[in-house]
Design a protein that fits this description.
The chain has 8 helices and 10 strands. It is globular and about 45 Å long. It has helices at 58-70, 83-90, 112-118, 153-162, 174-177, 204-207, 209-213, 220-225; strands at 2-3, 8-9, 30-33, 74-77, 98-102, 123-127, 169-172, 183-184, 189-192, 199-203. The longest helix is centred in the N-terminal third of the chain and has 13 residues, at 58-70. 23% of the residues lie in helices and 15% in strands. It is α/β, with parallel strands linked by helices and 243 residues long.
C-alpha cells in the first residue's frame, strides 16, 4: 500500500494463523499414579522398575492432584507393593480388588480355593507384559528380565478356563491392558506404552492436564471394552481435602 501524501510504502506481510492447541477427545475417569519407583517387593515380571529414587515434593504433588481433579479425573494411588492395604482402608467392606499375573511358572496352578477365601470385589488376571527399558533384559537397559516368564495365548486361556467359576474374574491379556491405562510417573508425566516401552511425556505441572494427555498413548476404546468403568461402592464418602 502507498500513501501519496507521505510517499511512503507499507508492504503487506502475511501473519501466521494461530491454530488452537489440539485437545484429547476424551476425559478419562481413572488415572493411575505411581508416586515413586522404589518398591519393597521384588516381582521378577515387574514392568515398572526402580530406575530412579526421585520423590516429588509434597506441595507439587498436591498441585498436580488438584489439576487432575479440576479436569474431571479420579485417580488410583499405586503405592509400590502396598496397593491392597491402601484399598482396604478405602472401603468399609473387607472385600478389596485383587490381581494375579499368569506366567510360565504358575499358569498351571489352581487358585480357586484361595480366591474364594479372599472373596475380592474384582480379581484381575493379567498376562506377563514385556516393556523395553523395564523388564526385557540388559539389551534394553532393563533392571529386570521377564522374557522367560511369558505365556502363550493358549496357556493364558487355560488359566482363565480353570478359574471360570469365579464371579469376580476379570481377564486382561496384554492387548487389553497395554494401552488402556493412564499411567502417571513420579514426575507427573503420562507414560506412553504404545511402542512397547514406557515413554514419558510432558508433565502436567508444566503444560496442564489436557496437553499432557496428548503424550499418553491412551486407547479409550480398549479401556471401555475391558470394563474400565465399573461401580465402586465406598461408604462413607471420603471427606473433601481442602488444599
Amino acid at each position: 500500500m502507498t500513501s501519496k501524501w507521505l510517499n511512503i510504502s507499507f508492504p503487506f506481510t502475511s501473519l501466521p494463523i494461530l491454530k488452537p492447541a489440539p485437545k484429547p477427545g476424551f476425559v478419562p475417569v481413572s488415572v493411575n499414579w505411581f508416586p515413586h519407583r522404589v518398591c519393597n517387593y521384588r516381582c521378577d515380571f515387574c514392568f515398572h522398575t526402580a530406575t530412579n529414587d526421585y520423590i516429588l515434593p509434597l506441595d507439587e504433588g498436591k498441585r498436580a492432584l488438584r489439576l487432575l481433579a479440576d479436569a474431571g479425573h479420579s485417580f488410583n494411588l499405586r503405592t509400590s507393593g502396598k496397593c491392597s492395604s491402601f484399598a482396604k482402608k478405602s472401603f468399609t467392606s473387607s472385600r478389596v480388588p485383587s490381581c494375579a499375573t499368569a506366567r510360565s511358572n504358575n499358569w498351571e496352578e489352581d487358585m480357586n480355593d484361595q480366591i474364594q477365601e479372599v472373596d475380592p470385589i474384582r480379581w484381575k488376571v493379567f498376562q506377563v507384559l514385556l516393556l523395553d527399558s523395564e523388564n526385557t533384559g540388559p539389551g534394553s537397559n532393563s533392571l529386570r528380565d521377564a522374557r522367560h516368564l511369558t505365556v502363550t495365548g493358549e496357556q493364558y486361556q487355560a488359566f482363565l478356563d480353570r478359574h471360570a467359576q469365579q464371579p469376580s474374574l476379570v481377564p486382561e491379556d496384554n492387548n487389553a491392558m497395554k494401552d488402556s491405562y493412564l499411567l502417571l510417573d513420579e514426575k507427573m508425566r503420562f507414560l506412553d506404552c504404545s511402542n512397547s516401552g514406557k515413554k514419558p511425556g510432558r508433565s502436567i505441572l508444566d503444560v496442564g492436564v489436557e496437553t499432557a494427555l496428548l503424550d499418553s498413548g491412551f486407547d479409550e476404546k480398549t479401556f471401555l471394552e475391558r470394563g474400565g468403568i465399573f461401580e465402586w461402592t465406598r461408604e462413607p464418602e471420603p471427606e473433601s481435602v481442602d488444599w
